[in-house]
Each structure stands twice: as structure tokens, then as C-alpha cells.
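In response to the reviewer comment on reproducibility (Comment 2.3), we provide here a single inverse folding case reported in full, input and output, so that an independent group could reproduce the run without further information from us. The C-alpha cells appear first.
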């Protein structure tokens, strides 16, 4: 068993004072030596963090002890070390930026548990709709799923016409995403637009892989940490993407080593080393090119960064926190 854990979670639950809670939550993460990205918003909490097993257990227990977050479902994965380089706890207007004007606490698609989804997905009256960004579904998606060429969920209204034919068709529309959070709002939006029989994969691709084996998810699942992609299909895996440079089948996704480009691309291991992790020869000539270490993940560099950065007490004073060693 690996020594670290990666936690993926969200919950729609009102937070009356997001700024105050952000500080409390940031301090909790510091005390537990966690790294990752957490969003606090009036509508709830959304995060992915990594840390030692005992620290992650303590973190989950602390959130579950808060009545507002008692219903959080954590997707838990193993790792050899931290999958993040920094800790960011931020206050935002939404826990997933959508601007769709819907409230999942009032209306959302019918939740399908992983095993229910597995049994239903091949029904001829079921249509799977991917609610992720284009670079995410390019490296992996469910067989036969409808995908949209969108950069983020805010663009969904521009693509609804592509599935307009499903209205009043009697078909079951099943939305899915990485961890389930986007589908809470995407399915609510479809219902608001007059679609019927709208469902969503509860817990997303990650939970489906963990609990139902990931059957019929081709490729790998894009994740928002330094792993970049993870395998989820342990039953009938397949590769759906090709190397941007040479065209050979590969699921290795990286960020282009040129900071001016930084595109998400699939690049095979050979081309990665031959071209220094770049997607084009022009990018290869970038004078500020980043050193390619084989992973293609580049965290933003901050001078003298420490996990305590970003934390301030409500009195506006820096607080000294004893950080444990790893």
C-alpha cells in the first residue's frame, strides 16, 4: 500500500461566511500538512488534496464532523507522494465556474450509482453526454458518448443545440464528468432547458473506476494534479488518443514545455524526449522553454513559496503554524 492518499470531493451546502471559513480551512490543511486546491463558495466546498494517509484520514474526519459537510463523499486514491506542489484555498462565487444560473440543491439530474450506470450505459435508449472540456475527453471518454468542443462548462449553452434532437425523444440522457461536480449543474441546466429523463453518473468517472471497474471507459481520465491522467478501466481498457507529434497511439498527456503555449497535448514517450516536451518546432525554439523531466507537468514557480503563504488570521496578522515533517 502506498503511503500517500489523494482525496477528491465536493458538496453543495450553504456556507454563510466563506471568507472566514476559508481561513479556518486553510489552517486545518496546514496543520495536517496537506497540499492541493480547495474552493470555498457560498454554495459549498470543492477540493482535491494530497497527504500522508493518517493526515488525510484526520482531514476527512474533521469535515464529516461539521454538520454542513457530513454528507461529503470522498474519492480516495493511493500515491507515492504528494500529487500537488502547493496549497491553495480560495474563495470564489461558485465551486465550479459555470455561470449557468442553476442551483443543484433545488433541481438536478437523477443520480446513478456506478453499478447502476454500468448496467444502464449500453441500453439503446440511453445517450451518454460528456460534460468535460475538449482536452479532457480527447484523452479518454466512454464508448459512444457525445462530446462537446468546449473549453469549460460556461460554454455549455453554446452547445446545447447539438443535443436538441434528444428533447421529447424518450431517450435517457446520462451526463458524466471527472468527479460528478460539473454534472450537478449541467444536468440541472438541461432540465431547465426542457430536457426530460436527465441522469448523472454519481461520483463521476473516478468513482465508477474505483467501484465498478471502469468498463467501457476508453483511454485515461484527466485529473487536475501532477499525475495529469490516471487509468480507470480495469476490465477492457483501450487507447483512444494519438501522439500529437507522430500519430502513434498513446494516453500520455502533458503540458507543452513552452510557457507561451502550455497546450494540453498527448505525446508519446519517445517524442516527449526527442522534442523536449513540445508540441511544435516553434514551441521548441521558445527562449523561455521549461526543462522537460518526462512528466510534462509544470507547477507555477513562486519565489520562497511555503504552504503557510496565503493564510492570515482574522486580525490580519501572520500566524505561525508548526508544520510537521514528512
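Designed residues, in position order:
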Amino acid at each position: 500500500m502506498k503511503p500517500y492518499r489523494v482525496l477528491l470531493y465536493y458538496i453543495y451546502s450553504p456556507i454563510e461566511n466563506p471568507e472566514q471559513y476559508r481561513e479556518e480551512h486553510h489552517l486545518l490543511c496546514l496543520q495536517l500538512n496537506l497540499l492541493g486546491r480547495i474552493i470555498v463558495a457560498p454554495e459549498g466546498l470543492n477540493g482535491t488534496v494530497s497527504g500522508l494517509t493518517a493526515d488525510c484520514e484526520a482531514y476527512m474526519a474533521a469535515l464529516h464532523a461539521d454538520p454542513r459537510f457530513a454528507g461529503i463523499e470522498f474519492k480516495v486514491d493511493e500515491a507515492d507522494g504528494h500529487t500537488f506542489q502547493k496549497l491553495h484555498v480560495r474563495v470564489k462565487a461558485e465551486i465550479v465556474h459555470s455561470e449557468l444560473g442553476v442551483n443543484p440543491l433545488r433541481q438536478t439530474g437523477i443520480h446513478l450509482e456506478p453499478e447502476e450506470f454500468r448496467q444502464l450505459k449500453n441500453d439503446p435508449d440511453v445517450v451518454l453526454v460528456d460534460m468535460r472540456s475538449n482536452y479532457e475527453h480527447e484523452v479518454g471518454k466512454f464508448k459512444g458518448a457525445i462530446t462537446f468542443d468546449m473549453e469549460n462548462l460556461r460554454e455549455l449553452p453554446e452547445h446545447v443545440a447539438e443535443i436538441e434532437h434528444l428533447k421529447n425523444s424518450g431517450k435517457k440522457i446520462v451526463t458524466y464528468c471527472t468527479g460528478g461536480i460539473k454534472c450537478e449543474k449541467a444536468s440541472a441546466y438541461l432540465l431547465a432547458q426542457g430536457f426530460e429523463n436527465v441522469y448523472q453518473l454519481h461520483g463521476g468517472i473516478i468513482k465508477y473506476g474505483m467501484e465498478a471497474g471502469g468498463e467501457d471507459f476508453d483511454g485515461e481520465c484527466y485529473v487536475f494534479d501532477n499525475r495529469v491522467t490516471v487509468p480507470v478501466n480495469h476490465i477492457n481498457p483501450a487507447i483512444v488518443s494519438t501522439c500529437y507529434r507522430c500519430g502513434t497511439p498513446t494516453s500520455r498527456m502533458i503540458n507543452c514545455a513552452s510557457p507561451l503555449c502550455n497546450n494540453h497535448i498527448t505525446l508519446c514517450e519517445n517524442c516527449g524526449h526527442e522534442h523536449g516536451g513540445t508540441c511544435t518546432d516553434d514551441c521548441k525554439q521558445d527562449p523561455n522553454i521549461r526543462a522537460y523531466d518526462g512528466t510534462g507537468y509544470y507547477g507555477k514557480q513562486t519565489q520562497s513559496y511555503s504552504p503557510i503563504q496565503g493564510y492570515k488570521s482574522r486580525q490580519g496578522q501572520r500566524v505561525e503554524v508548526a508544520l510537521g515533517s514528512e
